[in-house]
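Residues pack. Consider this:
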Amino acid sequence: MKPLTIFYILVFYVIAQLLWWATIMVHLEPMRRGMVLGESFVFISLMGFGAYKLHRAINKEKKINAQQKNFLLSVTHELKSPLASIKLYLQTILKRDLDKAQQHNFISKSLLDIERLADLVENMLLATRIENKSYSFPKVPFNLSNLVEKITSRLQIHVCSSDALITKIQPDIFIKGDDFALSSVITNLIENAVKYSPDCLPIHIRLQQNAQGRVLFTVADLGIGIADIEKPKIFQKFYRTGNEDTRKTKGTGLGLFIVKQVLDHHQATIKVKNNLPKGTVFEVCFN
């Protein structure tokens, strides 16, 4: 029998006993009816409130445990896939007499998988340091336009063609911030768009500074979109819709958590909008 069920049986038993003894007391001393009823009401209210709070705490703990289980499963999947790929490429290079072009192709693909592993480890370390409040977010002036262009160029190789990532980047936009942490924001937002979009559909990346001096960075895709009920939850740590055993898209549930935490430390905001006719738009605003 589940511990929660046993607890509720005990609560019911205690309340039943209380009502039984209250009935006896009222029968024996009718003049004390008001006092007995008042004390019984207070006791039952406290028991009910305590049971409700305990029920919520247990459900919250179960939810956290489920999210951590999903996280471990997703990390396992994320690690196994590139490692198996790298192993296969290197074994092929060693066992077969490949020409230089084939070797170069296999080594290039191995480096891409290593890059995936590096991004995963970097996300995990940054999320841990943010949660432990051990990351200081050093802020210095830097060229955000150059950073966006650099990251977009690096991620071009992960999509089917050079036309998949369509950029419109205003040159020489400078902000004061932590370029390392903000590079994780840009990378995670673009990788999410790639991950949840069908192959070869365009993803629009835009960086501009408006007349009021605000810097806007947007990533718009034509993917599966995000339901309105899910939008307030997607920045929670480990949160991913569905079950990790059946989910097709890869990920750890850390990307958008890192995005929100980093932007909060830069006094920047992020909005999630529906893209028309389908897809999602993430809009970051630096004031």
Summary: Strands lie at 140-143, 165-169, 174-177, 203-209, 215-220, 268-274, 280-286.
